[in-house]
Design goal:
The protein is α/β, with parallel strands linked by helices. The chain contains 14 helices and 10 strands. It has helices at 2-6, 29-42, 65-77, 91-101, 108-119, 123-137, 141-144, 167-202, 218-226, 270-275, 277-280, 282-285, 300-313, 354-365, and strands at 9-18, 44-54, 82-85, 104-107, 207-212, 243-249, 254-260, 288-294, 321-326, 343-345. Strands 6-7-5-8-9-10 form a 6-stranded mixed sheet, sandwiched between helices. Strands 2-1-3-4 form a 4-stranded parallel sheet, with helices on both faces. β6 and β7 form a beta hairpin. α5 packs antiparallel against α6 (123-137). It starts with a helix and ends with a helix. The relative contact order is 0.10.
């Protein structure tokens, strides 16, 4: 039984870059590599990656007929368990692809939601993930229950004939009730956070929030600054639940609260951003944001743009922000480091530049 639980699934990955799509939604080599890392995090081994370029999206199956056939042949040859699509599929496209491939099909949003479901530890985190999952699931129920007949019909026992109710309708009603209950519970979380904020403001305790792309090193930076031992692993979405630690700043003569937040990523599911607003709205009320950037990543500028866009979406664009270029020790010798006015270059792993970062925090809070 233990071996069966630990068995990793085999996945074929596919993505589409269509001229008719928004640039941010198109698949690229970088987004496909990231999808493979997400699949690994979720517990699947990637056996093949297929990227299609065409003028427009195929309305029925999302990918072109020839590419669908290619994926089917690869999946059969490699004995794959599922196909993961780098883009977001409509419910009907997901069903059509499953029929065409004879495989389970998961899109990028579904994969990220699955990882979050595995990782959420606190009650608040689990509430937020469950709400996002139900909102994602609701429009996809039709295909899941299309094989079921009506519960009551012409051949039903005497006394039970009538309009009947499909399993689909029953489940939709149940899920809508559950969504309403989760939203009410998360509203209570918001009220508690609001009370905590007022208490902090009364005690004049500044809040510094770490934000950034997933796996940029935020938890390691927090550990270094506060001498904590929060788990910090080299994997995507290692931190889901907000962690806060106190930092004594002698120059200010008081304590500062440092908060580590969930990492961002390209094409982050809308349902997830909405569900996590109870946590992420803290960014709006922070006194300073530390935007941690993995400067050793080949596409770090794009990762910055993704984070900046989400900060703006969450209403925190006006919060003072200091860019922290992390992992400078991983750059090749003689590499040019970013030289912006509101930035600092560090290596959280080696400790290089941390004194400079601390000084810049003090300067910003003063």
């Amino acid at each position: 039984m233990q071996e069966l639980q630990q068995k990793r699934e085999r996945a074929v990955l596919a993505g589409l870059s269509a001229a008719s799509m928004e640039p941010a939604e198109r698949s690229t080599e970088q987004s496909m590599d990231e999808l493979a890392a997400l699949a690994d995090t979720a517990g699947a081994d990637t056996v093949a990656m297929i990227l299609q370029t065409r003028q427009s999206v195929e309305p029925r199956t999302f990918l072109g007929a020839g590419k669908v056939q290619e994926i089917r042949e690869v999946a059969q040859a490699q004995q794959c368990d599922l196909a993961i699509i780098d883009n977001e599929l409509s419910p009907s496209q997901a069903r059509a692809l499953e029929d065409a491939l004879g495989l389970r099909v998961l899109d990028r949003s579904g994969l990220i939601l699955d990882i979050f479901a595995q990782r959420a530890q606190t009650r608040e985190g689990r509430l937020q993930v469950e709400l996002a999952q139900y909102n994602y699931l609701l429009p996809r129920l039709t295909g899941m229950w299309s094989h079921l007949k009506r519960q009551a019909g012409t051949s039903a026992p005497i006394g039970t004939r009538g309009p009947g109710e499909t399993q689909l309708e029953t489940d939709r009603r149940h899920i809508r009730r559950r969504i309403q209950k989760l939203e009410e519970e998360l509203e209570q979380v918001r009220r508690v956070r609001s009370t905590q904020r007022r208490r902090r403001e009364k005690n004049a305790m500044p809040v510094v929030a770490l934000v950034g792309y997933t796996n940029a090193g935020k938890s390691t930076v927090l550990n270094r600054l506060t001498r904590s031992d929060i788990p910090a692993n080299d994997r995507l979405f290692d931190t889901l639940d907000t962690t806060t630690r106190r930092l004594w700043v002698g120059e200010l003569g008081r304590e500062v609260l440092l908060s580590d937040t969930v990492g961002f990523i390209r094409k982050l599911p809308t349902h997830l951003v909405e569900a996590f607003k109870a946590t992420l709205e803290e960014l709006r009320y922070a006194d300073l944001l530390l935007h941690v950037i993995d400067v050793s990543a080949p596409d770090w500028q794009e990762q910055c743009a993704v984070t900046d866009a989400l900060i703006e979406q969450l209403g925190a664009a006006r919060t003072p922000c200091l860019r922290v270029y992390n992992k400078c020790d991983a750059l090749p010798p003689l590499s040019l480091l970013p030289q912006e006015r509101r930035s600092v270059c560090i290596s959280a792993r080696t400790g290089e530049g941390l004194e400079d970062l601390r000084a810049r925090i003090v300067e910003a809070l003063q």
